[in-house]
Amino acid sequence: DALLLQLTNTSAYYTYLLLFLKSVVYFAIIAFCLLRRMAVCCNGVKS
Predict the structure, then answer these.
(1) Which tens digit of pLDDT belongs to each residue from 5-33?
(2) pTM above 0.85, yes or no
(3) How many domains does the chain have?
(4) Half-sphere CA count of 15, side-chain side, radius 13 A
């Protein structure tokens, strides 16, 4: 019974960790795209 509880806790922990990492990756990609777009706009390379 204790083993099942530990397994459940570990599973939940890894699930939340995976979701957190996924969010961090998405945030990094979006931030990179926004910064690149702003840099292009500010430099005046493309209108």
Answers:
(1) 999 999 999 999 999 999 999 999 999 99
(2) no
(3) 1
(4) 6
